[in-house]
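Agenda item 2: 1-O-phosphono-alpha-D-glucopyranose complex prediction
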Amino acid sequence: MIKQAIIPLAGLGTRLLPLTSVFAKELLPINGKPGIEYILDECIDAGIKEIVFIISTKKQMIKKYFYSDKFYQNIIEKKKDKRIIDEYKKILKYKKKIKFVYQNIPKGTGDAVLKTQKFIKNKYFLMLLPDDLIIKKNCSKAMIRAHKKYKASVMASMKVNKKTVSRWGIYKLNKKLNKTDYLIDGVVEKPSVKNAPSNNAVIGRYILPRKIFKKLKSLKPSKGNEIHITDAIQELINDKEKFVAHNFEGKYLDCGTMKGYINSSKIIGKL
Ligand code: G1P
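Presented output:
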């Protein structure tokens, strides 16, 4: 059963400067709604009961956003505005499910995952990367279904232009399991075009086994001097852990770059 999710939120968001110089990128509105709320809605709709946010002291703003009770209560007392009351109820619903841990030095996604160890109770958990919005179909829900079917770890996958492989984690495929799912032999973090084992890229949704914490503890930093989750996944695969790449049906929106962020608002605005 997948009941817990983790969301790394300690990144500096330099690709979205100047918007992120004083503001957390995950709170930036996409068509009037903070990006993080799309991610929360996806995992709550997929049956997740508890969500661990990995933030940093520089990103306290995210915690404040979900803990602004007094502010709302004062306003609601003065103005009995239905829209504000509904927004407050929504924030309270999220707040009940969220826990916070800190990653004050940005040492990579693998290091962020390690910070959540004390909270993870079940054998498997879900991780969502907030830069990656997937709309129209709930990707987490489909991945949980695949996890149950194959009794395996699952990662979201999408075919990308061969020239862009060095932007992503890239899969080494083993065999096709059905229309949307592949068993994988490995994953390489941001390979060169020449060395890429395929053009199937990792998109930011992962169902990971709790076993990964043990691997992360002994992992050395690699590309960009960061501890990568992809390296820990590769070690688990070497130990014969089953990993499935799931080609999701929804539409992917890359909100981590300025161009992608602007485009996401346009696309969601037209829905
Ligand atoms: C991270 C992962 C990478 C994955 C990507 C998806 O990279 O390390 O394997 O393909 O997310 O968005 P980042 O976007 O942090 O550079």
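Discussion summary: The chain has one domain: 4-269.
Owner for follow-up: CH.
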